[in-house]
Amino acid sequence: LMLMNLGNKQPRHFSNLQIGFLFALWIFLIVTILLYAEITLYTIFLVVASGIIIFVPIYKARRRERKNLKK
């Protein structure tokens, strides 16, 4: 997975372990929010938006890497 590092414009690669840790941390955050916060439409929106913000760029970068490996 490559994400642009803003300081030196070099792509940064994340390992499967780092992505797994990010996923576990996100799940912990979501479970904590759902257990202790009042469940409203706004809460559900925050959960969905945070998932999109975190995982869509990861998914796109992984997909791009797989395409480049097939070439």
Report how far the terminal alpha carbons are from each other: 17 Å
Strand fraction: 5-15%
**Count of alpha/pi helices:** 2
Uncertain ranges: none
Mean pLDDT: 83
Compressed to H and E, one letter per element, the order equals EEHH
Strand order, biggest sheet? Answer: 1-2
Q: Structural class, from secondary structure content?
A: mainly alpha
Q: How does the major sheet shape up?
A: 2 strands, antiparallel
The share of residues in helices is: over 70%
Large-scale geometry: elongated
Q: Count of DSSP E strands?
A: 2
Q: What radius of gyration results from the CA coordinates?
A: 15 Å
Q: Can you give keywords for this protein?
A:
71 residues, mainly alpha, two-stranded antiparallel sheet, 2 helices, 8% strand
Description:
This protein is mainly alpha-helical. It has two helices and two strands. It is 72% helix and 8% strand. The chain has a two-stranded antiparallel ribbon. α1 (16-36) runs antiparallel to α2. The mean pLDDT is 83.
Quick overview of this protein structure:
The chain has two helices and two strands. The chain is elongated, with a radius of gyration of 15 Å. The mean pLDDT is about 85.
Ordered list of secondary-structure elements with their pairings:
Elements: E1 2-4, E2 11-13, H1 16-36, H2 41-70
Antiparallel strand pairs: 1-2
